[in-house]
DNA sequence: TTTCATGTAACTATCGATATTACATGAAGG
DNA sequence: CCTTCATGTAATATCGATAGTTACATGAAA
């Protein structure tokens, strides 16, 4: 089953937006996410409605962050996307008449509910600021590796 | 995103098979799961290969359980289905060159891995025997409710 | 040797999600 | 103003994954 990559993609573009100080157009973001500008607008509209980003029309327009990175958790972003269903596996029918199926559903539902609660709490623990810091650390690591390799090479 | 209901469906038919003492044909199972006999055979083939069920050809043939209900966990069934991916949400790309995306993926992967581990351990805790007992309890409940209602009505 | 059932390959249909097109709205530049 | 650039959004097209179907082979029982 194909996975919904909007969460991953949106986090990606949000962090890229944070690196810039000016609005970024849907066109630029679309290229970064390898998709269509209209798709970007559709996805970002939820974030705008929740007040996480701003959009401006006309010259110099585009998307920009409306809040501090530390004030946005991954769970916020997930919710702003409309809380797409997290699981690729589910019950055949809701509210079946068959008692066998009711028993099956009850057990599966409990297991999935627990997993969902854990997942959401993990997403809540992480802010965009932390993701950004993680990115900066990786950037430093790469630079160090590069310096060492260059020193070896010379 | 549409959910894969094979796990739910297979558990359903396995419990129905347990209620009978004779082989059940793919045709009958297909009607119970509201699908096609060929689909049943496809799905059950994994369970057969793992030794959980048997299939016989010819007159009086069909599917029957090869093990005790207490010896089959929901995780066993999940694995026999080929461990379909549990989550409907995932990373846009694996092994991206972009460091921003690497940071995003690393964080999401950790959260999803934890949730998956929890979910699998819950599935491992439940045997088909326990599901069957749950079903029997529901059957008793329904009978009791029905008796009470009948008494009220007369 | 006929009937019934599974095994499996190949093909088709369906359906949801993404991509695209088209046009409206509105802001900034000249 | 009016042209350009950008978003907003509805309508439509395209694509891919999965279930469903058809067809035929295998093999067991009557």
Automatic annotation (TrEMBL), chains A, B:
Report any Pfam family annotated for this entry.
Answer: Rrf2
Residue stretches in coiled coil: none
Entry's Gene Ontology molecular function annotations: DNA-binding transcription factor activity
- Entry GO CC: cytosol
InterPro entries named in the record? Tscrpt_reg_Rrf2, WH-like_DNA-bd_sf, WH_DNA-bd_sf
Checking PANTHER family in the record gives: HTH-TYPE TRANSCRIPTIONAL REGULATOR YWGB-RELATED (PTHR33221:SF15), WINGED HELIX-TURN-HELIX TRANSCRIPTIONAL REGULATOR, RRF2 FAMILY (PTHR33221)
Q: What is this protein called?
A: Rrf2 family transcriptional regulator
The organism of origin for this protein? Bradyrhizobium lablabi
């Amino acid at each position: 089953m194909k996975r919904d990559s909007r969460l991953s993609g949106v986090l990606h573009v949000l962090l890229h937006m944070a690196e810039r100080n000016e609005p970024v157009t849907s066109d630029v973001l679309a290229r970064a996410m390898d998709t269509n500008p209209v798709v970007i607008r559709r996805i970002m509209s939820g974030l705008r409605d929740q007040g996480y980003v701003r959009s401006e029309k006309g010259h110099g327009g585009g998307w920009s962050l409306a809040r501090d990175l530390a004030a946005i958790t991954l769970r916020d972003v997930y919710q702003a996307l409309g809380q797409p269903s997290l699981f690729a596996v589910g019950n055949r029918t809701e509210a079946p008449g068959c008692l066998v199926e009711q028993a099956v559903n009850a057990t599966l539902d409990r297991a999935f509910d627990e997993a969902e609660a854990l997942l959401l709490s993990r997403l809540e623990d992480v802010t965009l600021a932390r993701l950004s810091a993680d990115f900066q650390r990786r950037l430093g690591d790469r630079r160090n590796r590069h310096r060492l390799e260059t020193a070896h090479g010379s």
